[in-house]
Amino acid sequence: MGNKTILGCIESNDKQKEDEEYNKEKTNQNEISNKIEITEDDYPKDACIKKKSDTSLRRGVAISTTKCLPQIKPNSIIPISINKAILVGEGNKNIYDKYEISDNEKDKLGEGTFGTVIKAKHKLTGELVAIKILRKNNLIFNEDLKKEAIILRGLDHPNIIKIFELYDTETDFYIVQELCSGGDLFTKIHEEGGQSEITTGIIIFQILSAVNYLHERNLMHRDLKLENILIDDSKYSNNIYVKIIDFGTAKFYNKNKENEVIGTPFYIAPEVLKGEYTEKCDSWSIGVILYSILSGKLPFGGTSKLEVYSNIKSGLYDMTIYPFNIVSMEIKDLIKKLLLLNPDKRLSVKEALEHNFFKKFKIKEKLSKLTTDKLKILLNNIRNYNPQLVLQQTTIAYLVHHYPQLTYVNEANSLFLKLDDNNDGVISKSEFVNGLKELFKEQNENIDEDFLEKEYHFLDVDHSNSIDYEEFLRAAIDKKLLLEEKFLKFAFDYFDVDKNGQITLKELKKIFKESSDFPEEEFNKCLKDSDVDLDGQINYNEFANMMKRILA
Question: Is residue 223 among the annotated active site residues?
Fold first, then answer.
């Protein structure tokens, strides 16, 4: 049978023939490896050599030298705070009881080797979500695929996809996650072509910020590409917001270099092909993404894996094409420093965030821009945030996590970014106290530093010595939004584990089972302060009244 071409990707209809071709290419690749010496001399200093390879934008499929995904030891998983642990539910019933999952082809968001991603609707609230369905009857399915959910469960960054629930059945494994209605970055570039410098900078800054957050936690993504960047098409902001997805190949790392060849051919770093690499492989992939967003082309193309790998190892790409003749020297310099063949000389993501390009075009300022009125509202929300009951705090945390696209979340995100001075994805004590003190001063208001320090410790619920993104959101957003009936019913349904219309002490203990920080008296206090009719349970009206007391 012949070959078929899909969006420029050559795919074989004959699986056996494809395997033979791949093995042959792998042998040839090893031979080429010995012939092509990767040195700094190969890196073009000014205009890069124009190459004849096909650099048109096309999708790529991730590859790996092993059949199974990398093992992640339990003790290397990011410690989950009490809040993160209870915010991602583990469904114990049929997922179809809670979600309307369409079998319509138009609602299919993606399909890969391991499963399908489809749009669904929460029956109680009507909110749209994306559900990744991993079929266990697929011979390729491996328990390690679940590690993606475990990793995501412990991450908290505005530019990393959020997961809401996990369902594990005999036949399938489901990951319920937020829906980004803007599609993926590949589709946007494929349809619109290259983007402006400002738009490119706004997108790349967010990607760098998210990956810097990962690297701070010794986690490398290893498969960054346009297809794995989703667009959060929010109607509440003029900026384009993006989120990184697909952590199936992510891996925690230490000082030792990795040796597994894994990633997508067009985006894979040259040192990965050699089987000796560090987290700097993510910097290379971001450099490829940057080049592609700006130009609408791939820097390293080819009609076969062998040709693509050869071009990557040469380090030669074309900067004579449009728009490189009209863009700033700063953005070209950033591309060059991210695509250096020598990973030791290549920019880390942390270094890239400090590049002059972002400073010249004031990219962070554009992302963190707030009107005076909105800033005042956010500052007052933070100053007045003081829920007294653990059930109130947890309800706010649960709703903030499950509704990342609420009104004012983007504004709170802008303030978070403004306070996160070193771009590490969390707010330190000094950043919080000094940053807010300065902002209040700009509003002609004096605020006591001792109060800010106490507020800082109050917001740091997981005692991590920093304020995580969602910890900050809980204080900054308008709580009135969370007290709408549909949100309260949604939260009440979560705590009402057996769905009998009452929240019991037993159910609260079950939900908080992973926490050793909540003693018995805290549970009793929740019940005592909310159970008006003294029947030993909390009904919906009692729950709603308890939540409304936050605004009193």
Answer: yes
